[in-house]
Amino acid sequence: SPSNVLMSFKADDQLSIYLKHNDFSQEHELLKDIKIGNTLFKKGELPSNFDSVVKVYFESVLGVAFSNQAMLDGMETFFSERSYNPVIEYMERATE
Predict the structure, then answer these.
(1) I need a labelling partner for 79 at 20 to 30 A (CA). Which of 3, 6, 72, 95 fits?
(2) Neighbouring residues of 18: CB distance < 8 A, sequence distance ≥ 6
(3) 23-49 residue pLDDT tens
(4) Are 37 and 54 contacting, i.e. CB atoms less than 8 angstroms apart?
């Protein structure tokens, strides 16, 4: 279910910390290089294979297979809860 996907993202040490939604660029991003399973992802915009790698990772680590729709809905909810705007953050720091 989407809620199980959401909980899986929140429970993972790397995914819960380093994944964000950039409100300025409207892209999902990694804030740091991370390794998921045997795949290294570089900091920045998520590559097109990210969903597939995470899906296989969850299945191998958690023993749970999620449907494509559950994965999509859970990920979108996760990112909606973790959005930031680097331009606004920069401007706020500049005025301090």
Answers:
(1) 95
(2) 30, 31, 32, 34
(3) 999 999 999 999 999 999 999 999 999
(4) no
Strand partners, 1: none
| Spatial separation of the C-alpha atoms in residues 41 and 43, rounded to whole Å | 7
Q: How far apart are CA 12 and CA 24, in angstroms?
A: 26
DSSP 69-82: HHHHHHHHHHHHTS
CA-based nearest residue to 18, from 78, 68, 69, 71: 78
User: The tokens of 96 are what?
Assistant: 């301090």
E strand intervals along 3-92? 19-22, 27-30, 34-36, 39-41, 44-45, 83-84
* Number of folded domains that form the chain: 1
Tell me how far the alpha carbon of residue 28 is from its chain's centroid.
Answer: 7
For the entire predicted model, the pTM comes to: 0.83
